Amino acid sequence: MTARIAIAVIVAILIAGPWLYPVDPIAQDRDAANTGPGAHHWLGTDEYGRDLAARFLAGGRWSVLAGSAGTLVALALGWIAGSAAGFAGGLADSLVMAVSEWFMAVPWLYLLVAARAAMPLNLPPRKAILAIVLLIAAINWARPARLARGLVLSLSQKGYVEASRGFGVPAWRILVDHIFPGTTGVLVAQALSLLPRFVLAEVTLSFLGLGAGEPYPSWGGLIVPLRHAYLLRNQWWIMLPVLLMLPFFASFALVSRQLERNYRVSR
Amino acid sequence: MIRRLGACVLQLAAISFIAFYLFSVAPGDFYSAERLSPQLEGRSVDQWRAAKGLDEPWPERYVLWCESALRGDFGTSLAYGVPVARLIAPRILKTALVLMPSLALGWALAFSLAAWAARRRDRILEPVMSVAGMSPEVILVSLLLWLAVWAGAPLAGAWLPIAGLTAIVVPLVFLHAFSALTTAREANFVRIARSRGVPRTRLWTRFILPAAANPLVSLLGPSLATAVGSSLVIEAMTGWPGLGPLFLEAVQARDYDVVQAVVVILAAALTFLNLAADLLLYRIDPRIRLRV
After folding, report:
1. Nearest chain A CA: its distance from B134 CA (Å)
2. Residue A61's domain spans which residues?
3. Measured between beta carbons, which residues in chain A are less than 8 angstroms from residue B215?
4. Which of B32, B68, B81, B181 matches a 20 to 30 Å C-alpha distance to B253?
5. pLDDT, tens digit (0-9, with 9 covering 90-100), for B113-151
6. Considering CB atoms only, which of A114, A203, A232 is closest to B259?
7. Residue B195 placed within a domain
8. pTM of the prediction?
9. Is B245 inside any structural domain?
10. What ipTM is given for this predicted complex?
11. Which of residues 76-105 of B touch A (CB under 8 A)?
């Protein structure tokens, strides 16, 4: 319960960020470059004098938005492919299963970077976020598809489905009325465990310089300066945004663990 | 068994094809960024493309690439002018140098922790591990870096990537091992064995561990895949000169032969490890042999 409230609070803060803390994340205040946390800049500033708190909030909106959109697309793709495979069976089933296995065999971060490389590198930020979302979804449809297939297979052998089939109910009605309601709980659980992973994928791509790109803020961009030991030594406050990201991932982990236990979802 | 091997080969062919196709339809290539470079030595960009065979249609290039890759020749890096194999081999060694110890260490640590927690019916370690398992590697490693700087430890060397990778492997293996061991411990045949008075060591070695072996052996492949994926980021963060930084550099420069070779070699390694894990499972788990 606490973790659910934490997620709601964090998301609310990210959404209300521009009103709660009305500072421009891109504006440079050269006189206040590299200053520590204070009344003026709550989390301090970076080497261009940009406010880290504002960058954290704006970047979080960006990263979480990309992650949730990716989750939606991946779940939709995976659910359609998986339930079609489970419902139709036969050749379609073995084809979907084989292709999903290929996608799961490659380390997906390498795959993500390789696929990103196939697109123009310097995209405008709006297009970049769209590209990232589509990529994340295209690469991660396999796991939800396998999950949906297993569920649909077991559901379509239930008595009530057999009965409606016997009454001559068309296949699409069985799918919509009897099979889809049985999968919603698992879908929600899967969405909650996928979302932080996809946020992380966006963070990692931005960290590697393949995401939204400077000067636009993102959580991955905030991690880039941590590579430099001298900055860590002299400007401890660049660590603060990273520490603030931890509760987000932790509360999602706790909630999805709880839900997975309730629905007994296999990983 | 033959079918399984055939599926592996097909899988590799599909992955190499997808990778190749992606880069053929991608806009721009290595030379579109090099138009003004003084190193072109009097030849035009189009002449260089023709010299490297980049103006051929992609199906033709794919067939050529497959032929030479099967002979162990992955082409020549456009950026370095060195055979890709010679460029990649030392990097693979470097990556293996951090991957192997951290996998061994991670498995040993996670497994002993899981066995300890399962025996004590511990309720704290499991949620802690699922939180740790969800934290992204960029954050874990930056925390590690911060601690290292704060404690004044040396930042160079292999220990930082090894520690980071171990921190990725431990929660993953722990969660699976913990659930496998608790299920096995509560199975009816284990309860009966315990009530018959089977001594504890014998109970673990003859009853619980064999029953829990199946999910753990099938985890071997995925745990390596996760570690390899994380090594990309961790090497980039800690500056370890493994496969990850080379791959990123090749991606940015559109040095496609290098990217292609890395993707295919990694996919091959993981595919055959999965195959090996399946074979191992076939040997140690009689239930699978019955089904086949």
Report:
1. 6
2. 2-22+48-266
3. none
4. B68
5. 998 888 887 788 888 888 887 777 777 888 888 788 777
6. A114
7. yes
8. 0.79
9. yes
10. 0.74
11. none
